[in-house]
């Protein structure tokens, strides 16, 4: 077994977006659920951190439109790493057209969250892909089973 598979961080959400406002919004909501957060504005730096640190998060939230490397290429690159192949990837994008959604799925994304997103929708996606989350006091909250139908 690859040693990195043993290092899965059950409560870590990795967020990659060139918009610092989006990253701050994600951080606030992820941490409010008692989860750990790792955010990066550079996809190259995020991939390097995943490689160097052997990070195996519970979920990756990935912007589609970034100037350095496009989100679809980053998604392909994540899927090419054996220890990350089964990690849920949620694409974040302002695009609402079906072809963008289908291209994201073809690149290996598991889900798609349209910007701007609300707190309720973001938390629903986190619950769907991670499962039970912690409240601010550290106690586990039950999974929102009604949101399971939102999986694609």
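^ structure tokens above, recovered residues below v
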């Amino acid at each position: 077994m690859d040693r990195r598979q043993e290092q899965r961080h059950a409560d870590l959400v990795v967020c990659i977006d060139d918009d610092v406002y989006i990253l701050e919004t994600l951080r606030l909501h992820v941490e409010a659920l008692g989860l750990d957060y790792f955010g990066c504005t550079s996809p190259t730096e995020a991939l390097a951190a995943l490689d160097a640190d052997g990070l195996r998060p519970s979920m990756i939230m990935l912007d589609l439109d970034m100037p350095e490397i496009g989100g679809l290429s980053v998604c392909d690159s994540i899927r090419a790493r054996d220890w990350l192949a089964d990690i849920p990837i949620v694409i974040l994008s302002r695009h609402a057209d079906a072809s963008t959604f289908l291209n994201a799925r073809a690149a290996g994304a598991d889900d798609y969250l349209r910007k701007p997103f609300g707190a309720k929708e973001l938390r629903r996606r986190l619950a769907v892909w991670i499962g039970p989350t912690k409240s601010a006091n550290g106690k586990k909250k039950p999974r929102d089973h009604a949101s399971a139908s939102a999986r694609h």
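The helical segments are 3-6, 20-32, 43-53, 71-79, 98-106, 119-130.
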